[in-house]
């Protein structure tokens, strides 16, 4: 996977997007993936995905965010966003599979991608609802998937 930067109309920021020669880049530099939902909201949806590795947090479309919040026992205060890390291990969090246009699985988001361990038994909830109804995947993806930058000029993290 190679990474390139593109300027997006989403908040007028630069985003990092994975590029392969066979990918067709959609407008606003989003890639169109089929996203597999599991559980109560099972199904496959075609959705636009942006990558922003400058931020740990990811933004999920409302339906995916709602599914994630339903799986978290109690409510996470979105102003505080902290839980005890040992509680995360017992949560039955949803998995979202992203499938590229050729039908191959590109990547998966699961429990490890939703929280950041702050090394004091406190975990930060690193997911926000997307105001624009698209996926914006943050740096927590690197916890479970290798991210390769092939051009040194692209290191902007």
TrEMBL record:
Domain of life according to the entry = Eukaryota
Give residue ranges for domain Peptidase A1. Answer: 1-157
InterPro entries attached here?
PEPTIDASE_A1, Peptidase_aspartic_dom_sf
Q: What is this protein called?
A: Peptidase A1 domain-containing protein
Tell me which species this is from: Albugo candida
Q: What is the lineage of its organism?
A: Eukaryota, Sar, Stramenopiles, Oomycota, Peronosporomycetes
């Amino acid at each position: 996977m190679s990474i390139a930067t593109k300027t997006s109309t989403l908040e007028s920021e630069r985003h990092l997007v994975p590029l392969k020669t066979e990918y067709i880049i959609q407008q606003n530099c989003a890639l169109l993936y089929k996203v597999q939902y599991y559980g109560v909201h099972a199904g496959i949806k075609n959705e636009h995905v942006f990558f922003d590795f400058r931020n740990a947090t990811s933004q999920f479309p409302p339906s995916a965010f709602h599914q994630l919040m339903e799986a978290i026992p109690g409510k996470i205060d979105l102003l505080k966003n902290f839980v005890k890390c040992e509680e995360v291990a017992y949560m039955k969090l949803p998995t979202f599979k992203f499938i590229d246009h050729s039908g191959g699985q590109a990547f998966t988001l699961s429990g490890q991608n939703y929280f950041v361990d702050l090394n004091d038994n406190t975990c930060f909830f690193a997911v926000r609802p997307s105001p624009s109804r698209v996926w914006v995947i943050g740096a927590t993806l690197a916890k479970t998937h290798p991210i390769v930058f092939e051009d040194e000029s692209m290191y902007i993290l």
